[in-house]
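Model the whole thing, not chain by chain.
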Amino acid sequence: MDKIRIIADAMGGDNAPDAIVEGALSARDASDIALTLCGDAEAIRAAARKCGRSLEGVEIIDTPVSVEMDDDPMCVIKSKRDSSMALGLKALKEGRGDAFVSAGSTGALTVGGTFIVKRMKGIRRAGIGALLPTDTKPVLLMDSGANNVCIPQDLVTFATLGSVYMNKIMGVERPAVGIANIGVEPHKGTDLQVEAYKLLQQSGLHFIGNAEVRDIPFGVCDVVVCDGFTGNIFLKTYEGTAKMMSANIKRILKKNPVTLIGALFVKGGFEALGRKLDAKSYGGAPLLGLNAPVIKAHGSADAQTFANTIAQARRMAEQRVVETIRESIQTTGGASDEGNP
Amino acid sequence: MDKIRIIADAMGGDNAPDAIVEGALSARDASDIALTLCGDAEAIRAAARKCGRSLEGVEIIDTPVSVEMDDDPMCVIKSKRDSSMALGLKALKEGRGDAFVSAGSTGALTVGGTFIVKRMKGIRRAGIGALLPTDTKPVLLMDSGANNVCIPQDLVTFATLGSVYMNKIMGVERPAVGIANIGVEPHKGTDLQVEAYKLLQQSGLHFIGNAEVRDIPFGVCDVVVCDGFTGNIFLKTYEGTAKMMSANIKRILKKNPVTLIGALFVKGGFEALGRKLDAKSYGGAPLLGLNAPVIKAHGSADAQTFANTIAQARRMAEQRVVETIRESIQTTGGASDEGNP
């Protein structure tokens, strides 16, 4: 069997290019993939030297331009069409690789994925699936920020995409799907949630109804669907609250000599909790609904996290997630204006 | 000076009427208020006997009907116009009291407040202000669930109402107002947030821009404004995440004999954290924008919590919150369809 070919944006993320190049090369060394790196060739070679890994066999798409975090997301198809992100997505579109990974701007990656790789037939909006750690199991939250405004059919699409992903990549046999909402009753929420509820009941998916957002941290279902604004509000509230609680736990344990003694007895448990709730442990966030796998790695990804995200991209290609989604969309029904954002 | 007159719905909440009657009577005994109780007179008298407090001087509005949690909120102005909640709101409207408190259905209280007590001139939507405990200080989140869908002007109204409340009741000199959003930049969010941003800049309020929801648990401003759907999503995610973290803390401390020893050294700190993050410590949630003070007590309110909420209602009347709001709305500008929900 041919090697899976991963294209990586060497210039995206807080720690690019050094940690990105190191992570990509270590993933290449750990598994049998073919690697293409997009970015400033000189900087890529310097980064490879620094971490002591070989660039032999690695294709480099050389460009001095990269997308910055404060750039307008549209730049990736306008003023920065020759950026490392845009050229990587173009290479993916042209079949010169099987999946693309970037730790760069989420907005630009969404625009680039939509306009360069393009959405598959029957999909009105691609969505970002964030894999959330919860008390009991990982939950895929989708859309987590690509589309601020959605129509009910989009939530059915996200449910289909998310169900395939959780099945193929996370091994969940029959993913339970819920709508992120302010209560469990079918009439709760705005028109979006009420109408999506009716559509999901007829979708043939394993729809369990509304997921009260209060219950999501306990892992109430496998796939939670919502518009991107609500998803992003949920995600950031979840992160912010966990961060605030963690800061308080640290202060309590370090308060005085007495608590420091107590801390010795319990710190193992709190370290394990920190690991359990670390979103990075699951890799990056897939942009689902496109014609090929695109994954957003964490902006703060270090080498190890980026290597994990490359491994995740490889699984998406191996497991034929995109092909399975294409078949599923035909079953659950697509939306009308495919191809037109 | 005449006594402040508080009207309480004796039949609302999980612990009604016993805990509600006990809480109301103990608040009456602790401070110099005149009390009116609405509900089944026989049940109210039985509850008073149980807690050993006198009903002397207490006016009772006797009715056998009460609003149940699963009733349609509209019932309060339709099939249950003679319920304890509806009759209490009517008494408030007629000036037979200075403030009304109920631990019953939030939806019914919002409908009843809007249609019986009515919104003041210049206010298109009344909103529920939830006082959130955060790491550093209480934050008023408004609207926290009365209006799923809002227009930009509503957020300016909520900002005005919330600023007056935080100033008069919580003693914040110049409350800082932020929009609950997915980022701090002015272009973030949907049209609602983008347009409200522009209006708030011109409002004369102490507007500090967007409040990234990730930062709200750290107390980034005093008043956070949003539509009621977003507010309710935030509130329930915040509660659910804190609950999940607390459950983990308990499990960690109780895991085995070794951690139980450690727990002895640190449990005081965790108990204090629990108290700090207990929303009930601030009393109930005011329904702001009406012609008289209406407060929603926690559905699970016990006698002490209900007594605190009565004290809060008394402060709202004493501090002339409604009158101050009426003056402020004229300064910051009202919305067009006042009086028509």
